[in-house]
Design brief:
The structure is a homodimer of 338-residue chains.
Chain A (H helix, E strand, L loop, with lengths): L3 H8 L3 H8 L7 H13 L6 H7 L5 E8 L5 H17 L3 E8 L3 H13 L4 E4 L5 H12 L4 E4 L10 E4 L2 H14 L5 E7 L5 H14 L5 E8 L4 H14 L5 E4 L4 H10 L6 E5 L3 H8 L5 E4 L2 H17 L8 E4 L3 E3 L5
Parallel strand pairs in A: 1-2, 1-3, 3-4, 4-5, 5-11, 6-7, 6-8, 8-9, 9-10
Antiparallel strand pairs in A: 10-12
Helix pairs in contact in A: 1-2, 1-3, 2-3, 5-13, 6-7, 8-9, 10-11
The structure holds a DNA duplex (16 and 16 nucleotides).
Chain lengths: 338, 338
DNA sequence: CTGAAAGCGCTTACAG
DNA sequence: CTGAAAGCGCTTACAG
């Protein structure tokens, strides 16, 4: 494996010059640069990560991470992904600060401002899709603080990348699964998180588009639980009381625990229940037989991947010239695969 | 973050001595060692990976990897995992040599011997469960060449670790899925890979144990395809001709493509088909609607994880004093989640 | 049993 | 525009 030293010798220049050329740093004679590049190519030069990493000990990068509050346990797993990757990258001079805030624009704006005051070099965020948040983020981006959106995107944010689910597809997959796991007339109740949240409404669209035209499926009612377990309990209780014909439920987002409690209290374990993610309460409910299947979206990967992208970008902004989309794999789980 | 240099200063010794203590190298005065360890603990010392990695450039490790021949495309993905991790670890002085051989004892023994002649420092293998292979591996292990089993284990091999599926569990999960995705009387045909292969028979056991006692399920016939697509085509063709009442098939291993061809030719797309893994032909068959669902076992992870373990072991044999089992996640896929 | 020194590959502040 | 030198943290061959 070729090293900078070898290239320098062959080219008859110093190692510093080779470094400048290879990393597009300022002011190297064009002729010299060409020669160096040619030799690097010839020797199939690949930078040695250990060397780079060790030298990078001097730069300290701080990344601000803003996700939802503890109320939504799904983010516990995303955060594990952040922390694992951060642990790995500590040795490369990277530190993170994680803020979990309620899902509203004031809380997010406060968190973003706090990050900026701490001098972060980049922000990874699950953005609340509100004009005030979007414009603040775009202001920061314009000012040179890169932003990556994770788990949920906001179209109008000029983020470097989005790492998360393809929600439309996951909605379709949920419907397909419901189709495969049932026969006869199906009366479906849908529980949305928050119709203002882009990703939840996309799941809803995917779900209904997939069932559209299958006669045996009827969507009876659609309700929002705002990702809240108590609210979810209420909604599902009244849904099932008002519509005892419901024999299938689709939870597009969080609040699964509260909803399942209602199912259990009404003794309706006959209902086909499809959910998303495998937070611990969902796992328990699956083992009890209350949830038929759940579709997961690699939460740890989402955390790890977005942080890695940010780190790589900070070291070489060339890699993300255009916004890129990194979609999680969709993994179906049933109680036997937990 | 504390460094060796800082510890050395506090302890009033040289960096070399600190290194010796921290890495359990030979001959350091007990008193000195105690002092160094105490200070290291006090400062919460964690070795810097970049520094370690750079210094490790001088040791070159060579790992031999032996998996199945190209006839079984599943291993293409395992190999991607090996190659990704190897690319990462190249910078830490690690190289791999991959051998894909037919699944019999002579081929494996030849491959193992070739690895030894090349001077490998460790072997990662999907072992053929034969006495001759087992004893050869155990001889190497006794002679100081560590072995890790991947994807399929052989109980009597004294390997450091096994990385792969819990086959019994995946068999059970397949049966559970079949149960969920069907109603009424089900007549099941089972296609085994090779009953001499431990993992295939374990899947079979898991599958039948899960269906055991469910009256609507009847296992009509069980056959081996030896992971061969042509053989698989023949078997499934005659199965379906002889037992037209079969309305569900379970493929425990490879040969899915050949089997599905038979289903297609006989125009039996009504059959519920459960398979394992998502090799490209399986993906195609799913999109055509011939396969209902497939249960995956993270092939890339298996490759990456086993190689990482081997690398870590070579750097610090303490981490694997007892054989450890690393099981892959089971992920169910349907055509909508591909 | 211990220390001083060189080296792994890359980066950077400084001098010119 | 370029080079020489020091440094990131860890390891090791050598000398004593």
């Amino acid at each position: 494996m070729a090293t900078i030293k070898q290239i320098a010798e062959k080219a008859g220049v110093s190692r510093g010059t080779v470094d400048r050329v290879l990393n597009n740093r300022s002011g190297v004679n064009e002729e010299t640069a060409r020669k160096v590049l040619e030799i690097a190519k010839l020797l199939n030069y690949k930078p040695n990560k250990a060397g780079k990493a060790l030298a990078a000990q001097k730069n300290k990068f701080l990344i601000g991470i803003i996700v939802f509050s503890r109320k939504n346990p799904y983010f516990d797993d995303v955060i594990k992904g952040f922390e694992e990757k951060a642990e790995e990258l500590t040795f490369y001079g990277l530190e993170i600060m994680i803020k979990r805030v309620p899902y509203n624009h004031e809380a997010q704006i406060d968190a973003i401002n706090a990050c900026v005051e701490s001098g972060v070099n980049g922000i990874i965020i699950t953005p609340y899709n509100d004009e005030s948040v979007i414009s603040l983020l775009n202001k920061l981006i314009a000012g040179g603080i890169p932003v990556i959106t994770v788990n949920s995107d906001a179209e109008k944010v000029n983020s470097l990348a989005y790492v998360g689910s393809d929600y439309y597809k996951s909605g379709r997959a949920s419907a397909a699964l419901m189709d495969m796991m049932s026969t006869g007339s199906m009366n479906v109740g849908i529980i949305l998180g928050d119709s203002n949240i882009l990703c939840h409404s996309q799941r809803y669209l995917g779900f209904t588009s997939r069932l559209n035209g299958i006669n045996r499926f009827n969507i009876i009612t659609v309700n929002e639980n705002f990702d809240d377990d108590l609210k979810s309990f209420e909604i599902v209780s009244s849904m099932l009381r008002e519509h005892p014909e419901i024999n299938a439920l689709y939870f597009t987002a969080a609040g699964v625990y509260g909803g399942c409690k209602a199912i259990k209290e009404l003794d309706r374990s006959d209902i086909l229940v499809i959910t998303h993610d495998d937070v611990s309460t969902t796992v328990d409910m699956m083992k009890e037989g209350l949830i038929t299947a759940t579709i997961c979206q690699q939460p740890r990967w989402q955390g790890a991947k977005s942080l890695e992208l940010m780190y790589n970008y900070l070291n070489d902004p060339e890699i993300l010239k255009f916004k890129k989309y990194f979609y999680a794999e969709l993994n179906i789980k049933i109680s036997e695969t937990l």
